[in-house]
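Pasting as-is:
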Amino acid sequence: MHILITNDDGITAPGILALAQALRQLGRVTVLAPDRNWSVSGHVKTLHRPLRIKEVQLADGSPAYATDGAPADCVALALLGFIEEKIDLVVSGINNNANLGQDVTYSGTVTAAIEAAIAGVPAVAVSLDLPNGLTAKADYSTAARVACQVISQLMSHNGLSYRLFSVNIPYLPVEKIRGVKITRQCQRIYRDQLVRRLDPMGHPYYWIGGDPPTGVIEEGTDIAALAAGYVSVTPLHLSMTSQQGIDQAQAWHWKLDLT
């Protein structure tokens, strides 16, 4: 198996190194990631300028590639031919925060996996639920072990034929992780605020700030699984069509007056 690893935190992020080291036991690993942080970048695909790629080394000395493009660009570049060997699986992460509910539309980690799924390649996004205000150096070793085992089981059950999964891992010692739950997305609650300030010239500028998001903890959701100490595995799909919306709208009387 040939696994492409990318992320949205940048090629030097500790999460990508831990993930690469863990997944080498499952097959050949190629790392291609952004050369800088692209967190909360959403699904960016660069079409208006050239992209550059350079060979780099991870902290353990293993070879990798870095590009000035976005996370989704990394996947597109690899699948379109920069990586000549066929890629069987794309894994994005380990992100340094959870990606829950509607976060998946903002997350460069998840949208890199979405880019792979669009191309027909199975993909898994892996995120670690680091606590807010963590000051100590984060430990990604347990999350990497968990990710490797989850992906291995997806492979053994042919689950990767589904193509797209978001995995969220609680930041707990390995002995306190209670297991795996298959979940749906929660209702995320954002507390964004617009901060208005003046620059030294007296001109206004704006910053989107606010408290970290929370979510509605309902049984069966990703956020509830994390809160209970479980790894959350959420199958995602690319269609955003609402069948309920179709059913309701079809019952309306539609007309156009083009005179």
